[in-house]
Amino acid sequence: MTPLGAVVRGLIAGTVGTMAMDALLYAEYRHGGGKTEFGRWEFSSDIESWEQAPAPAQVGKRLFEDLFGRQLPNGRAALVNNLTHWAFGIANGAAYGVVAGSAPKPRVWYGAPFGASVWGGGYVVLPAANLYQPIWNYSPTVLAKDLGAHLVYGLTTAAAFRLTSFVGRSR
Q1: Which helix (H) or strand (E) holds 140?
Q2: Where are the transmembrane segments (predicted)?
Q3: How many domains does the chain have?
């Protein structure tokens, strides 16, 4: 596999993994009594200000404002949340593609340590950026739910990466 092929396959796989993670999180939201329909939930339509915005939006806001030296208005919080969330999931898929593409035969189980490392990385980077509390301030239930979502992301990304190896092959 070429490095470019590994990156492209990783981008596709990261997209599929992000979709799977969002499907799980939405199912959990609905199971917990959430009423918002999927489209509004997925596109963060109820976020109207930066004070309401979750970590992905805050990261995107900081990156944009630091890079361009311009303030983002409250009306951009939902958009920035989605762009950052999806870009992060897809970009991590590309990184996975480079690593897995270097292996003689990428395995789906590689997705478990990959997903766990993405999860753990968030609990290092986001507290350092003052966007999360330190990991020990979260309950085991919250951490387990978040880890579970990231394992779904990682395993689905790995499975999609593996499946893309069969696309375009002649028999």
Answers
A1: helix 140-164
A2: 6-27
A3: 1
